[in-house]
């Protein structure tokens, strides 16, 4: 089986606030907005992020009962420092400061209004010594 697309869902008491976070800071666009259910995507991407109201009959009771998110969504952006600055200017607390990793990512973590963890990533060149030791030998 090969999936035709991919989607993830955030279950929250505040669907419109969560959707506004993703549209404001990560340039996602609303596809469907039913109030209790909102879909977001970027352009013609073959993935989408859905936001569904906790307690809605379509959400299993066991899922609605969860209040802490342990999911981490990764979003690749062109300029991680620009996104970090926009978040901070908007009053959003960064969970970590931007850092450049030897394996070729500059990134930081933040949480959306529902508490979902987001890894905001900019792809950069890996450290040459690290690349030689870890990539060229494979």
From TrEMBL:
<protein>
    <submittedName>
        <fullName>Glyoxalase/bleomycin resistance protein/dioxygenase superfamily protein</fullName>
    </submittedName>
</protein>
<dbReference type="InterPro" id="IPR037523">
    <property type="entry name" value="VOC_core"/>
</dbReference>
<dbReference type="Pfam" id="PF00903">
    <property type="entry name" value="Glyoxalase"/>
</dbReference>
<feature type="domain" description="VOC">
    <location>
        <begin position="4"/>
        <end position="123"/>
    </location>
</feature>
<dbReference type="InterPro" id="IPR029068">
    <property type="entry name" value="Glyas_Bleomycin-R_OHBP_Dase"/>
</dbReference>
<dbReference type="InterPro" id="IPR004360">
    <property type="entry name" value="Glyas_Fos-R_dOase_dom"/>
</dbReference>
């Amino acid at each position: 089986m090969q999936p035709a697309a991919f989607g993830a869902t955030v279950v929250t008491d505040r669907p419109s606030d969560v959707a506004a976070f993703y549209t404001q800071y990560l340039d996602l666009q609303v596809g469907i907005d039913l109030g209790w259910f909102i879909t977001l995507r970027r352009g013609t991407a073959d993935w989408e992020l859905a936001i569904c109201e906790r307690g809605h009959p379509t959400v299993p009771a066991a899922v609605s009962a969860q209040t802490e998110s342990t999911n981490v969504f990764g979003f690749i952006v062109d300029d991680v420092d620009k996104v970090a600055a926009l978040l901070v200017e908007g009053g959003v607390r960064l969970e970590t400061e931007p850092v450049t990793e030897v394996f070729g990512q500059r990134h930081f973590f933040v949480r959306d209004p529902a508490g979902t963890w987001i890894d905001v990533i900019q792809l950069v060149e890996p450290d040459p010594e690290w690349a030689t030791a870890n990539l060229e030998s494979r």
